[in-house]
Amino acid sequence: MSVEDYHDPTAGLGGAPPARSALGLRLVLALFGLVVCTGGAVLFLTIAWAPVIAVLLAVLAVVALIDVLVILRRRQREGER
Questions:
Q1: Is residue 68 assigned to a domain?
Q2: Has residue 45 been placed in a domain?
Q3: Residue 29 and residue 36 in contact, taking contact as beta carbons nearer than 8 Å
Q4: Are 78 and 51 in contact (CB under 8 A)?
Q5: Alpha carbons 40 and 68: distance in angstroms, whole number
């Protein structure tokens, strides 16, 4: 990723490679959270009948889904695959 008018003062020092985006790891973690929270919400609602915990997990699943969508949009904008 190249940002216009950006100067990296540490470029070339110690042969360090340029920084890479952590969107891939963030995507994996968000997907994991989405699956775990969705499964937990379903289990707490059907088996344990704990609607308060199920709603909390469902809210966290929605947050994880929004995070996945934001990550995919950023990756698409940056041209990553």
A1: yes
A2: yes
A3: no
A4: no
A5: 18
Domain count, the chain: 1
pLDDT value of residue 11: 66
Residue 62 falls within a domain, yes or no? yes
- Alpha helices by DSSP H, listed for the chain, are 23-46, 51-78
Hey, what are 46's tokens?
């059907």
pTM of the predicted model as reported, rounded to 2 decimal places: 0.72
How many CB atoms are closer than 10 A to CB 39? 12
| Domain around 40 | 23-78
Measured CA to CA, the distance from residue 18 to residue 3 in angstroms comes to 13
Of 27, 12, 15, 32, nearest in space to 80 by CA: 27
